[in-house]
Design brief:
It is a single chain. By secondary structure, the chain is mainly alpha-helical. The protein contains 13 helices and 6 strands. The protein folds into 3 domains: 65 residues, 2-Layer Sandwich (Dna Ligase, domain 1); 84 residues, no CATH class; 112 residues, no CATH class. The strands form 3 sheets. A two-stranded antiparallel ribbon has the order 1-2. Helix 2 packs antiparallel against helix 3, helix 9 crosses helix 10 and helix 10 packs across helix 12.
Length: 344
């Protein structure tokens, strides 16, 4: 017979072996997870521009890399930075990265720093294609002719959301997403335009696509609607309200009567449209023709795009601008006339 102390020793050995095996399994699982998430995202060698701004922490860098689908997992990349004691050594600058690079290769690149001469360009929300092209040209990035040629070269084969958009000089109106960009001064116009389209594609999240389907709204009509909201709204909090007013008008077949659409035809922003302006014979004249215009009138930002997806539910059918840029809203035409008399 074994003594109690002998049984106890056997139990301890057995428990130790079990614990050791569990630990090995956990470490093996963690090792597999870590090595898997450090692998390249894909075998596609499509180079992208990635910018690290001055003072950006490693955690933010990891988040942005994941958001742009350059790495598989932000936490794995951040842990790699910590193991390499590199989380405080990432160099600010512009980098050319590709999804076919492993996280280790990406980290090595970010630790080396960059040399290309970079130009920072901010495109305000609501800029038109013409304004964006002028901004790019004025900053030494190509010529006007090169940009319009580049825009004509993009199709649904490049980005599915471009399917069905009409041809024409300003065919990418609405899709050149307003943001702050960093470009290599030697960047080709097509690569510059591609950056705008890449940024727009990030707005088409699964949630957004589901919402568009629920609303029975095409991507193009979504952008058109948002482009009008962008040019009409000056106050952030009013975007969903204005989007709701236009949604109400579209639902009952009432002309949008948006001054911004007429201004797009005129090519200038007038404080007040004349009666003759509202009679211009153009499909963009929403005083004359009901429904949405045939294309976007500006390049809307995130807030306006979201406002169209989630408009504020009201009975408003009218609004008029006040001196401070805000608007007075009305349900009836008489209320609207009273607001015009009061604020204009």
């Amino acid at each position: 017979m074994q003594s109690r102390s002998g049984n106890r020793r056997l139990s301890i050995k057995k428990a130790f072996k079990t614990t050791f095996l569990i630990l090995l399994l956990v470490l093996a699982g963690a090792g597999f997870w870590f090595s898997h998430n450090l692998k390249p995202v894909s075998s596609t060698a499509q180079t992208r521009v990635f910018v690290i701004e001055q003072g950006m922490p490693a955690s933010k860098v990891a988040e942005e890399l994941k958001k742009q689908n350059i790495i598989r997992n932000a936490q794995a990349f951040l842990q790699l930075c910590r193991w390499q004691k590199a989380d405080s050594k990432l160099m600010a600058g512009m980098y050319y990265l590709s999804p076919d690079m492993s996280s280790r290769e990406i980290l090595e690149t970010l630790l080396q720093g960059t040399e290309p001469e970079v130009v920072r360009i901010t495109i305000p929300e609501g800029y038109t294609v013409e304004q964006i092209v002028n901004t790019l040209v004025n900053n030494g990035l190509g010529t006007e002719k090169e940009y319009y040629k580049a825009m004509a070269s993009f199709s649904a084969q490049d980005y599915a959301f471009l399917k069905g958009i009409p041809n024409g000089k300003n065919r990418l109106e609405g899709f050149l997403f307003p943001d702050t960009y960093f470009f290599d001064k030697k960047a080709k116009p097509r690569d510059v335009i591609d950056r705008f389209l890449q940024r727009f594609s990030r707005e088409l999240t699964p949630e957004t696509r589901n919402k568009l389907e629920e609303m029975n709204l095409s991507i193009y009509d979504w952008v058109i609607h948002a482009s009008i909201v962008e040019r009409e709204a000056q106050k952030q909090e009013e975007r969903p309200v204005i989007a709701g007013v236009f949604a109400n008008r579209l639902r009952i077949g009432m002309p949008l009567q948006s001054c911004a659409t007429v201004q797009y035809v005129l090519g200038e922003v007038k404080p007040v449209l004349s009666t003759e302006d509202t009679k211009i014979d153009s499909p963009y004249n929403t005083y004359k023709y009901p429904g949405l215009p045939p294309g976007p009138i500006s390049n809307p930002g995130h807030a306006s795009l979201q406002a169209v997806l989630y408009p504020e539910k009201t009975d408003y059918l009218y609004f008029v601008a006040k001196q401070d840029g805000s608007h007075a809203f009305a349900v009836t035409y008489q209320q609207h006339l009273n607001n015009i008399a009061k604020y204009q």
